[in-house]
């Protein structure tokens, strides 16, 4: 595997076996789960501010499309099966199918789709430069909120203005910060790898 030909994970670990891929999935699920527990309730909203979207941005862009999708799908399945790994909520349990089908379930579905899209773009080098990484991450984050807001709107029968107030406005600054962190750090990692391989 040559440098810059695939995802960061595939470049650093070009000879991955089924065992190493399973370890990556388990590690990714653990990381997403931990970041989901970093949760701050938003008054008047069922949607908390969490570190989960940052985890999705990082996993999607570093793992690539196939492994990124597999990792987040495994996270969802583990949560539905009863593992208490979804973000804490004052209105519902942090596990189970009800959580996936509840008011905030659209964000989880959006993260699943975004993990694939971000991985797809990263497989095509979008994560290697800030000028391509930033818009790719912005698109992935917009996809999460598209699903999340649409689901929130219809499940709670809110007006669109109330939906945006509950599910978007309190999160804009934090999401832009997460995107900026990821879009800045990944090209730096790529440059360091490039320098080390060219020595």
Q: Tell me the count of domains.
A: 1
Any idea what the shape is?
globular
Q: What is the CATH class designation? A: Mainly Alpha
**Rg to the nearest angstrom?**
17 Å
Mean pLDDT: 91
- What is the strand tally? 2
Give the spatial strand order of the biggest sheet: 1-2
Q: Helix content range of the residues, please?
A: 55-70%
**Estimated structural class:** mainly alpha
- In N-to-C order, the SSE pattern is HHEEHHHHHHH
Q: Regions with pLDDT < 50 over 5+ consecutive residues? A: none
DSSP helix count? 9
CATH topology: Arp2/3 complex 21 kDa subunit ARPC3
Describe what you observe in this structure.
The protein has 199 residues and is mainly α. It has one domain: Arp2/3 complex 21 kDa subunit ARPC3 (Orthogonal Bundle), CATH 1.10.1760.20. 69% of the residues lie in helices and 2% in strands. It has 9 helices and 2 strands, in the order H-H-E-E-H-H-H-H-H-H-H. The protein has helices spanning 8-12, 18-36, 52-63, 65-81, 97-101, 105-123, 130-156, 160-167, 172-197, and strands at 39-40, 49-50. Strands 1-2 form a two-stranded antiparallel sheet. A hairpin with an 8-residue loop joins strand 1 and strand 2 (49-50). Helix 4 packs antiparallel against helix 6 (105-123). The two termini are 17 Å apart. The mean pLDDT is 91.
